[in-house]
Amino acid sequence: MDVRTLDDSDPLLGSSKLLDAAQKTVGFAQENDGIGLTKGKAFNRKFATWAAENFSWPEYSAERLLRIQKVLNEEDVIPVLVLHELMISMKLGRHVKGKWQFSKKAEALVQTPGVLQTVLTKGFLFEFDHCRLQRFPL
Predict the structure, then answer these.
(1) Number of domains comprising the chain
(2) In a domain, 133, yes or no
(3) Dihedral-angle region of residue 76 (phi above 0 means left; psi in -120 to 50 means alpha; beta otherwise)
(4) For residue range 43-81, what is the model confidence (pLDDT) as tens digits?
């Protein structure tokens, strides 16, 4: 199935929460030499909290989530869980020695938001295992 690729300057890209989260996640990984993992290979609490504070996902903001619990794990911040699973299914990175490292392809895609949005859309619709999210309220 074809998905139209938007021009990198298209204002519609600004409304994509998934695109925003992916770009910020790659940036975080580049600044921090990857994303730390738990023993179960989930993104660690430091990243989950950072994501809740920085993603444009108001229903999963740190302010809202930290009212309920003291610390945030990957599964507490559903956008982090979805993004991590999506990146795994799309092979845009991998777990290496206790850290998540993005592939060169993922880092290059961040430079072209229109193409990245198309890749994320196709990946979410056609490659992502949606059954893994059944236990989480979206």
Answers:
(1) 1
(2) no
(3) alpha
(4) 999 999 999 999 999 889 999 999 989 999 999 999 999
8 Å CB contact between 52 and 58: no
The residues with which 93 forms a beta bridge, in sequence order, are 102
* The two three-digit tokens of residue 124, written as one number: 């979410």
pTM: 0.91
In the numeric block, the tokens 């610390």 are attached to 71
CB 19 within 8 A of CB 13: yes
Length of the chain: 138
Give the residue numbers spanning the domain of 50: 17-128
In a domain, 103, yes or no: yes
Judged by phi (left if over 0) then psi (alpha if -120 to 50, else beta), residue 128 lies in: beta
Asked, for residue 120, whether it belongs to a domain, the answer is yes
What is the SS3 assignment for 22? helix
36 close to 47: Cβ distance less than 8 angstroms: yes
